[in-house]
Amino acid sequence: MRIGMITGEYPPMQGGVGDYTREMARALLILGHEVHVITDVRCAEERPSSQLAVHPVSADWGWRSCWNIKALTDQLDLDLVNIQYQAAAYDLHPAINFFPLMSRRPVVVTFHDLKKPYFFPKAGPLRSWVVSLLARRADTAVVTNRADELELISRRVRRVERIPIGSNITPALPAGYDRDAWRARMHIGPEDFLLGFFGFFNSRKGVDTLIRATATLDPYHQILFIGGTVGSSDVTNRAYADRMVALAEGLGLGDRVHFTGYVPAAEVSAAFAALDLCVLPYADGISFHHGTLMAALAHSQSIVSTLPRIGIPELIHGENVWLVPRKDVSALADAISTLAANPIRRRHLARGATRLSAQFMWEHIAERTAGLFESVQR
User: Fold this and answer.
1) 237-250 vs 207-215: helix crossing angle, rounded to 10
2) pLDDT-derived band of residue 123, with 50, 70 and 90 as boundaries?
3) What's the CA gap between 372 and 136, in Å, rounded?
4) Omega of the bond prior to 125 within 30 degrees of 0, cis?
5) DSSP character at residue 198
6) CATH class of 179-360
7) pLDDT confidence of 49, banded at 50, 70, 90?
8) How many of the other CB atoms lie within 10 Å of CB of 93?
9) What are the boundaries of each domain within the chain?
């Protein structure tokens, strides 16, 4: 197949949707498909030796850009177009939501979230309507988790397929990696109990809960924030990130909080390997739509997270994850203390995470996605 993937962000831009698109494109390429990534002009054009081609053509995501992208999909004679949807990645502009009405080719939309674009003040129901329009007009709407699947079904979207995402970071340590030396470089001692958080800062990630919980624990509990704190697409989160840094300082955690900043994939793996416990206290509950969770699973982490809003059978408390109530500082602090005192239980969680991560390998995800694309073409 000749597949076009439209995405509002793509490396070197920082963002989970861009990373997902790169991994999916590479996996589809291995399966023998021709892949064209159509994206933002801020992305460096990739000139591969094989069939993957990146077209950084959109200076913005308004109406004119969408018509230009439609013309490009016709010029490339694509068999199918796959939109990677996350409202923030398209500058919150609604034009991309109307693309299935413009296209003469089958359109599959992968929903990374169901957030609404921006029209104008007090647009209200219109903002939700355009998300539903995109899902209904697509040949198939792909979701990454059960909660989004149920939401689209409730909106009377008839063609919904649930396909999970994988880890955007392939576990691979730098050559000559030494855990103690790496921690020492970050001013973290061998006796410190290192908590790790991976991902951008925003109000849904529960960073404030983690900081407040750590402030109640003994000083040897340290936090390592892995990766950049703000992505390329949703820069509105910068104010939240600044508030979190100020919160940590105000609670006296200044020398107990560490940041890697945006680093290459091997350094992300190095940071994961340096942790004693990975803490992902999502304010909206644990979900398989979080690429940060997938990365933690792939890196065989013992993980503390928050109860999902809708039950997820694959996640078993005490087996592959440790779950606490959402936004509960005391419960999170108690969980951290319990696991800090029990290395055997942490190792058990890590083994469970490894087993669970096998369900989210990119080759399997790409095979399911390609099979869906082929069925849409029939």
Assistant:
1) 0
2) low
3) 17
4) no
5) E
6) alpha beta
7) very low
8) 18
9) 2-166+361-377, 179-360
